[in-house]
Design brief:
alpha/beta, Rossmann fold, 2 domains, 5-stranded parallel sheet
């Protein structure tokens, strides 16, 4: 099966500290992959590398066969990324946060609005779309961040603790939506919520001290 993501001998340093070392693996197109590991194991750094938001100190990351370092603009178009921490502009509405980000990818206005409508209904965000981000619960903001990551229609979705801050119902809606993408989008996410990991994946990757055994 075709690989959406390929890492070849990837390493990442911060100062003199090795965060990731010698990562070599592939992730097949259309699969859902869970990344688990202790705090400070390197999960967030690895996800940022997969999303093309950071460059490795050595080795290469390929998305659909394209080197993220050499073909940055093209590879960034294919990826939606959801960070762990809330990063919405609190002075804009949820809809504005989603809309402005999608425009940066050159997405057509009508398509943005259609996707916002579809995904906000699926995640029960509709009643909050026109509220200032800073005035809605963090769980709702996190769902808006997922919609933002999907608004430009990426083929790869990278999520760092995607259901952090959410209640049980919001987690259920989120994973119902992710399962609908199964086979069409490649989804890679980190989580420390074990029932979520067990229920929503094709593959579990354990990262320990910067390596995948």
């Amino acid at each position: 099966m075709e690989a959406s993501i390929t890492l070849k001998k990837v390493g990442k340093l911060v100062g003199d500290k090795t965060i990731l070392a010698g990562l070599t693996f592939g992730i097949e197109k259309g699969t859902i992959v869970a990344i688990v590991g202790d705090n400070d194991a390197g999960k967030s750094t690895m996800l940022r590398l997969l999303a093309g938001l950071e460059n490795p100190n050595y080795g290469s990351v390929f998305l659909h066969g394209l080197d993220t370092d050499k073909r940055r603009l093209e590879t960034r178009q294919t990826v939606g990324y959801v960070p762990h921490d809330i990063d919405l502009d609190p002075w804009l509405t949820l809809e504005q946060n989603i809309h402005f980000d999608a425009l940066l990818y050159g997405t057509h206005m009508e398509k943005i609005q259609s996707r916002i409508h579809e995904y906000s209904q699926a995640l029960a965000v509709g009643d909050f779309l026109y509220s200032m981000a800073g005035r809605v619960p963090q769980g709702i903001q996190k769902k808006a961040m997922i919609i933002r990551a999907l608004a430009h229609d990426p083929t790869i979705l990278i999520m760092d603790e995607p259901t952090a801050f959410m209640d049980a119902e919001s987690r259920r809606l989120t994973w119902n939506l992710m399962r609908e993408f199964h086979g069409d989008r490649t989804i890679v996410y980190s989580s420390q919520f074990l029932p979520e990991v067990e229920a929503a994946n094709d593959r579990i990757m354990v990262i320990h001290e910067g390596s995948v055994p």
